[in-house]
Amino acid sequence: LEAGSIPDGPQVVRREPASLRSARWFGPADLRSFGHRSRAMQMGYAPEEWTGKPVIAILNTWSDLQPCHAHFKHRVDDVKRGILMAGGFPVELPAISVSESFVKPTTMLYRNMLAMETEELLRSHPVDGAVLMGGCDKSTPGLLLGATSMNLPAIYIPAGPMLRGNWQGKVLGSGSDSWKYWDELRAGKITDQDWLGIEGGIARSYGTCMTMGTASTMTAIAEAVGMVLPGGSSIPAADAGHIRLCSESGRRIVDMVWEDLTPQRIQTREAYENAIAVAMAMGCSTNAIIHLIAMARRAGHAIGLDDFERYSRKVPVIGNVRPSGNAYLMEDFFYAGGIRALMNEIREHLHLDCLTVSGQTLGEAIQGAKVYNADVIRPLSNPVYGQGSLAVLKGNLAPSGCVIKPAAMDQRFLKHSGPALVFDDYPSLKSAIDDENLDVTADHVLVLRNAGPQGGPGMPEWGMLPMPKKLLKEGHRDMLRLSDARMSGTSYGACVLHVAPESFVGGPLALLRTGDIVSIDVEARAIRMEVSDEELERRRAAWTPPAPRYERGYGVMFSRHIQQADEGCDFDFLRTEYGAPVPEPAI
Ligand code: FES
Ligand code: MG
Q1: For residues 267 and 299, what is the distance between their CA atoms, to the nearest angstrom?
Q2: How many angstroms separate the CA atoms of 393 and 497, rounded?
Q3: CB 247 within 8 A of CB 254
Q4: How remote is the CA of residue 490 from the centroid of ligand 2, in Å?
Q5: Distance of CA 361 from the midpoint of ligand 2 (Å)
Q6: What is the rounded CA–CA span in Å between residue 17 and residue 35?
Q7: How far is the CA of 502 from the centre of ligand 2 (A)?
Q8: For each successive 10 residues of the chain (587 residues), what is the average pLDDT?
Q9: Closest by CA position to 465, among listed 450, 444, 479
Q10: Spatial CA neighbour of 84 closest among 259, 261, 250
Q11: Is 10 within 8 Å of 2 (Cβ atoms)?
């Protein structure tokens, strides 16, 4: 059967074993294939184990410095068990783990590296389908971007959220409570001893951050776009159901290969609209915008900030999970019915006929899913936040847009004007911020620039700029902040992010000066600096571009090819339709 010749729709066509991609390596009676077979036998496999069977790559992002994926070291055996049961041949191919907690300056520098690695691992090896094991923030888009461009049948297994944190009987949420209690410590409200207790209690099991951070956002998106078995993205990492998800995904991928159920058949434009709707309803991380745009464009759909804006106006936040919600965590979300129940609540905003990896349509996959706690997963009639979680602002400070998360900020900053206090880099901001004589009021707009895709480099999660100590002591816990950086999905506050184009490449943010008045109006989706066009022209003429960040290594490639935030920060040359198609490798 020719690739791409299977008609869309629910009918299932079974491929012939001889048509398997791996058969090109293992089948022919020639010297090359002799080599492949003899080397497989060197590893102890008998020809019966692979002949006529789909070879399934398991892309495992486990590492000893990746706490969110620690269980993948063992879960991979459950995946293999499933593949073997269904008559496939599993092969584990390790991939970079992009550990959010340890990789510096930011994992965002390496998302595209994982995407390239994924695509090339699949292309260069004798495999017919892939199980993608990820979960920590950038691992989900990284794996999916690569698998989408390669377009072999693929299924995603999210690592699952870790258990709720606990300290002195109080529930702790990943990220969110670190920021919160850090400010309490700096304000003198808790002791060093308390802080140590929080350090030991906030991350109690393997698994991803259990707030609605980037990890939970992106795994929900992976499911909404159809790439995860129904309900899979909400299962806590430490739940036995997660083990069963692994073996079931192993069984299912083998059939997906026989059915030639490729990412392109699943990831339609409508599937991406579903992902945006779900992201909004979940109270998603701002990072969702960047990753979803990149992913959709790989699948061939021109999704942009306007699509987010459209959905943000119509889909309210109904997932009451921190930081947009005020009380609950992913474990509670799972007990309340999980993602299937949430999608069922917003079904009027979804395209229900989209296909999923299960072989069912989305409508079938969520049919009958019930909410068991209507405070955790709210009905549309009683949302956590009336409009979508994110808003896209435009104006002379951000002609290509910027992003704010109105659901997780002090509402008095939704419409605000104040003088800018501008820092050119993170170290100078950090060294000034605890100065109790800093010339700053709660009405100021704290600004960091040169923190975008090229300037960061890698657009680090610095966007929740630290509150000046002076203001903390005065009792303030929020102020308007602005940068071309990202922020963690577990962060909160009146933070304007992703200003595009970034200052490092000469975006207007580069021209802002301390004392200029910055105004935002979230309802009007507007952001401005109150500086005349003539004055901006004068400043532009005097502006000199900063020195390049890299002169050798991966960073050079990154700097030359990274696209701006509003375009998804993909490398230009990774766009699936860029240049002539990459051929199958010669064997
Ligand atoms: Fe891995 Fe948050 S650090 S998901
Ligand atoms: Mg994060």
Answers
A1: 7
A2: 10
A3: no
A4: 6
A5: 31
A6: 21
A7: 21
A8: 44 85 96 97 97 97 98 98 98 97 95 98 98 98 98 98 96 90 91 96 97 96 98 98 98 98 98 97 93 97 93 94 89 98 98 98 98 98 88 96 92 97 96 95 98 95 94 95 93 94 97 98 96 97 95 96 97 92 92
A9: 479
A10: 250
A11: no
Within 8 A by CB and 6+ apart from 4, the residues are none
The continuous run of DSSP H or E covering 448 comes out as strand 445-448
DSSP state of 547: P
The pLDDT score that the predictor gives to residue 11 is: 57
Backbone dihedral angles phi then psi of residue 133, each to the nearest 5 degrees: -110, 110
With the most atoms of ligand 1 within 8 angstroms of its CB, the residue from 63, 66, 68, 97 to mutate is 68
Please report the pLDDT score of residue 3 as a whole number. Answer: 41
Give the pocket of ligand 1 (CB within 6 Å).
Answer: 68, 100-101, 136-137, 174, 208-209, 213, 215
Q: State the closest ligand 1 atom to the C-alpha of 137, by its place in the atom list counted from 1.
A: 4
Q: What is the pLDDT of residue 82?
A: 98
CA of 67, closest atom in ligand 1: 1
202 within 8 A of 178, measured Cβ to Cβ? yes
Q: Point out the ligand 1 atom lying closest to the alpha carbon of residue 99.
A: 1
Identify the residue whose C-alpha is closest to ligand 1 atom 1. Answer: 136
* pTM, to two decimals: 0.94
- CA of residue 69 to ligand 1 center, whole Å: 9
Cβ partners under 8 Å of residue 117, min gap 6? 95, 96, 146
**Which of 442, 453, 448, 440 has its CA nearest to residue 464?**
448
Q: Is 545 helix (H, G, I), strand (E, B) or coil?
A: coil
For residue 3, CA distances in Å to 147, 152, 282 come to: 16, 10, 36
Q: What is the DSSP string of 248-277?
A: HHHHHHHHHHHHT--HHHH--HHHHHHHHH
**108 Cα to the center of ligand 2, angstroms:** 10
pLDDT of residue 176: 85
Ligand nearest to the CA of 136: 1
Quote the DSSP letter at residue 382: S
